[in-house]
Amino acid sequence: CAGGVSDVNDNAPVFEEAAYSAYVAENNAAGALVLRVQARDADAGANGRVSYWLAGGSAG
């Protein structure tokens, strides 16, 4: 008899903060750290991977 266990994506990422905001100065150096966002996901493997990206346009 053979068996296996696979992980399903049943845990949502949990962010360390409820909301994040940042101010980017006009003269910030390219590559400067502006904001650190952290989240953890209890799923294993690819289901536990958390990705971030910026969306939207410019303000002002």
Automatic annotation (TrEMBL):
This is PCD16 protein. InterPro entries: Cadherin-like_dom, Cadherin-like_sf, Protocadherin/Cadherin-CA. It is found in: Membrane. The keyword Membrane applies. It is a single-pass membrane protein. GO terms for cellular component: plasma membrane. The gene is Dchs1_0. Coiled coil: none annotated. Its main location: membrane. SUPFAM superfamilies: Cadherin-like (SSF49313). GO terms for molecular function: calcium ion binding. Keywords: Calcium, Glycoprotein, Membrane, Transmembrane, Transmembrane helix. GO terms for biological process: homophilic cell adhesion via plasma membrane adhesion molecules. Residues 16-59 form the Cadherin domain.
